[in-house]
Specification:
This is Tetratricopeptide repeat protein. By secondary structure, the protein is mainly alpha-helical. 45% of the residues are buried.
Amino acid sequence: MRKITSFFSCFLFFSGTIFAQIPAYFDINAQYKIATELLSQEKYAAASSIFYEVEKSKIIKTPQSLNNVEISNLKINSEYYRAYCALALDNEDAEQLFKRFIKNHPESPKSKQAYFQVGKYYFGQKNYAEALNWFTKVSSIDLTGKEDTEYKFKTAYSYFETKEFANAKPLFGIVKDENSTFSEQATYYYAYIAYADKEYPIALKNFEKLKNSKNYQASYPYYISAIYFLDERYDDVLAYAVPIVENTKQLNETEMLRIIAASYFAKVDYPNALAYYERFMKQDLGKTQNNQDSYQIGYTYYKLKKYNQAIEQLGKLINDKTAYSQAGLYTLGDSYLTTKNKQSSRNAFQVSSKLNFDKLIEEDALFNFAKLSYELQFHAVALDATQEYLKKYPRSKNLNEAKTLLAKVLLSTKNYRDAIDILEGIENKTPDAKEAYQKVTYYRALEFYNERAFENSIGLFLRSNNYPLDAEIFALSTYWCAEAMYEVRKYSESVSYFENFLGMSAAKKTDLYNYANYALGYAALEGESYAKAATYLARFLNGNEKDAKTVKDATLRLADAYFGAKNYGSALGYYNRVIAQGGSSEDYALFQRGIIQGLQNQPEVKIATLQSLLSKFPNSNYADDAGFEIPYTYFLIGQGEKAKTDLTLFAQKYPRSSYIPRALVTIGLVNYEQKNDQVAIDIFKRVISEYKSTDEAQQSLKLIQKIYTDMGNATDFINYANTTSIGNFSTSEQDNIMFQAANTQYLRGNWNGAVESVNAYFDKFPKAIQDKQAKFIRAESFKNLGKFAPAIIDYEYILNDWTSEYTERALISISKIYLSNKQYNEAIVHLKKLEIASEYKANYTFAINNLMVSYAGIKVPDQTLQYVDLVKNYEKSSEEDRNKAGLYAGKAYLLLADTTKARKEFEGVVKATKSVAGAEALYNVAEIQYFKKDYKTSQKTCFQLINDMPSYDYWGAKSFLLLADNYMALKDKVQAIATLKSIIDNYEGDDEILETAKKKLETFNSK
């Protein structure tokens, strides 16, 4: 009974449990179904509450439990769906619920879905990186249907947002081809990525699928337009994009305006391009406008001649280093040029020329930069730029123009020599090149003229006149060519050129017009065209532009012209005018007046005039002339005794006068007339003996012959004649033949031949008739051969006879030898003789100028200054002579330690001339400044010499040496050394410059 009771009890317990669990299972299941129904109806809050109850329901577990697994699955599912509802309700705990589910039930099939849902949660939060962390834990096979499509799209979009386009693209490609709510979006993003990957055909195909899409109607047109543009389908761009922009509101409207404008630009439709570019700029406000835009906008303005707007846009490219910048800055330069802003234009062309994207633009920009640098007077920059252009583009179509520009730059820097070389290399010269050539040859000719290299100057003046484009330069070149012709004694050519000058209308605008009448008169006078000389000298005196000194000289020369033309009345009138004015030429005018009075058969008046000359000017150069003419006039009027007495006194007073032979012959004639035959013969023999090479000796021989003949003693004459060097006629003829042979070699410049011929002449005739002329020829030939010692011997032989016509010429030549060898003491001896004895003013000029040089050479400043004064005050001194005198005065004052006076003299020379004397004077100014420790001023003066007088290489190099000393004194050792190295590398002169530079460099480096 007990056993039965226990069993029953157990049965009741077990069966109670069973019956208790059955209603619990059905209740949980029912609740679960209600929750899922609410979930399907998107009543997430209600569903979440019931899912929570299912999740928290308790189960009585027994070994016999049948539904434990099912209930457990319901609870697991409820836990998942409650997290899903939290996600749908955007509850803050949704993430945590899913994470807890995944942690608690990793083996559950819904754990993969949970990953997806967590990813969706982060996706909703736009935390795409975190969303990807969860999406990538899910596989497409874990999801089905809509969830799978949503998963693919949202995963793709997360990749898109995190810029992982390569991962996004294939997923968008799958979704876009499926019929789902995500297809349109996937198509858009797929097309966008293809566009970004430059797969334009694919992108275009997919963007075109969106043409009816309302969602993307404000965005896809931009990409279609952009693809058309990139494919250069400009007509398609305009046909498609213009109506859209005009009729719809686009998200990328600013970009579309840019594309439309650029398409019109590509089609060279600048008015429409500008209209859309201006709309683009108004909307963009500079936010996205790039350098390409700025170039195209600026170029559009430029083509429409809106240069100020073009300048504003193109100016934005100044710091860019692209092809657009190069082209834009070139256009900017042209825009500035059109608006007359050459300085800014020059800067733009310079920057453009430094970029090398487009070689043609680079070349043209450099050329324009060079031209504008020249026009704006940046001469050094223009020189460098033009030389760079010619070096980089030796075959340029602008080659001749560039060479012309280089020549003009060299002209502006006064480097005429190199400018001529450049221009002469241009075969077919443009008018501009011809004008430049006219100028550089003219200015180079002037340099030669100022250096007294007259033959060289004539050649260049003539070359300048081959291109008479500038009328004033043509006139001036003609004038100075005439002056140079005069200097080389081509008097008829000189007259012709002066006449040409006076016939030019441009000549009347110059300061030389009236002076040319004076110069022409002088040339005609020297050429013995006396009537023409008188005409032009009279015109000069009647003109306006003249100075008192020149008027006085012109008056004297006019008198000479009338005298030469035998118009003695007019000549006398002008000589009287000179006498009335007084001055240095009064003695000459008095002498000429006396001569005219004699020619007018007024011998007594002539004598009175010449006596007044001697009384007033006892030391005149014409004293011996007057001293001879007075007694000779007595002889002519029959006062033989008076003539004889006075001529005897004349010979005693002027023993070295060239009139001595004539005086002796006249004395002999008086004795002959007085029947003092033997006295006359003795006098004539003296003339033959002492002055055998003169005409008077021949005349004397004839007079002796007459006297002996008259005496009936022809044999004695013949015997006497044979004892003289002039009486053996056959010998004389041979003598003359021998001499002429030597003279011909000399005149031809065959110096060796001349020496040999003269030696043969003296071998044949040891006592040659024309010994002095022959020795002079030989001396000159030795000199030209550089054999100075034998030349000096011949010159000294000539100088033993002060009456020789070669005396002065010999003195000049021997002086030149000693001067060239810097034997100044020996030169002074002969120059002093020339100064005292010279009958020609030109020789006197030579003497005083070179005495000044010689005393300076032996460093005797007082004597140097004495001759400086003589040169400056001598009326026949040229301006260059006076400038040279100023230079030597400065040097003398330096020796006397008077730097103030020295500098004043040097600065006067610099102001007066640009010749080599001016260069040396300017160098001395710089050196004075250096020794006074005014280093910066000395530097400035050095640069002035280098820039203003580039033709004088030696003084330019000296200036660089002094610059180095200045830099060293200013403690700029780097610049000092660099300057010396520049001299060593570039100087080509054969003098002391290079050695000095090397020594200075060694000294500076040692410091």
